[in-house]
Amino acid sequence: MHRLFILFLTCFLAHTLTAALSEEKRAFALNVPKAELHIHFEGTLEPDHYLKLIEQNGLEAKYDSLEAVQERLLDQRDLNSFIEVYEELLSAMRTEDDFYEVAMAYCRKVSSQGVLYVELFFDPQMHTVRGISLDTVMRGLLRAREEANVSLGLTLNFIACFNRDRSAESAAKHLEELVRWQDVILGIGLDNPEEIDFPKKFASVYARARELGFRLTTHCDVNVPNTLAHHWDAIELMQVERIDHGLNVIDDPALLNVVRRRGIGLTACPTLLYLDIPGRMGSRAGAIKTLLEAGVQVCVNSDDPGMMRSLYVGDLLALTVEEVDLSREQTLELARNSFRIAWISDDDRQRYIRAVDDFAESNLFSSDW
Ligand code: ADE
Ligand code: ZN
Q: How much distance in Å is there from the Cα of 332 to the middle of ligand 1?
């Protein structure tokens, strides 16, 4: 009886300590200073905000409740069906105020999750095809940039993403118009469904963007047809400095070597789609850990949090830590990497990395984690 009681007490204490430790780890990952570099402005739109915009703008209400919008989000089976939902929901944004409000809602959320710096993707073509001018979009985004800086101490810059399933001519035309905002649109990217050989299609647009002084990145989605060739061509033909997702780099040792040696950053996202397929979070988090251990500059990002179960970047770093049991040092490295590969000055980089180190020093654990 006595022995049974001791056994019970030991198990109870071990369980309580483990729970306390995982709570401490979660708070550490959530709050560690970090940058977010792979985040689609349009995908930050939350279902309740969508409904509010539909009403405000007097648009046809396709869904009569939050539950109905959430049910629509369950239609995401793959990237193509996700983009259909994405385009449908983002069409509720019409005015400068809408762009401002949606961007501010995102900034408020992430500034409570340790985020100090953001490079926010947006899809110019998704708005101009609806008759909304770049001027309207940019006025809203610029107001949010100013407000986030003043009221939250958050620095926000932008990356214009062209859609891979639209023409290179359309991308080239938009590129020339974006020069007007080049002080805040730091670079260009490519998103939407991954067409076979897309780097060849957009190589000349990238050459022109480079000539204009834009920084270069592109999505290379995970486990899609021809993925390794796309990674190689993105690096060789498009001369990208970063790859968005890029987790298949672990499948090709020569590619991994080039990515590591050239310091090409990978903006990885542990989740995709509203309905996570069993095992996917684990395999993505596992790939992130492998890349980190191989010395690749990888960081954790949220992609489309408003349309993907409201998981923001701090939540996702915490989930990654838990899923693949990252060490404290690995957690800090992911945070430092987000600043290492950010398109910022070296002075800012040092300042941000010092903030990570200061955070680590003032958040020591009672245990050895
Ligand atoms: N557009 C928005 N989110 C995207 C993603 N994860 N991949 C490709 N295009 C996107
Ligand atoms: Zn993305």
A: 27
**What predicted TM-score, i.e. pTM, was given to this entire model?**
0.94
Determine the Cα–Cα distance for residues 123 and 109; give it in Å rounded to an integer. 21
Q: How far is the CA of 142 from the centre of ligand 2 (A)?
A: 21
243-292: pLDDT as tens digits: 999 999 999 999 999 999 999 999 999 986 656 667 677 789 999 999 99
Residues with CB under 5 A from ligand 2 (ion): 303
C-beta 40 within 6 A of ligand 1? yes
∠273-111-102 over CA atoms, to 5°?
60
**Ligand 2 mean position to 220 CA, how many Å?**
9
Say if CB 193 and CB 79 are below 8 A apart.
yes
Token couple for 26: 């979660």
Looking at the domain 31-361, which fold is it? TIM Barrel (3.20.20)
Residue in the structure block whose two tokens are 């989740």: 271
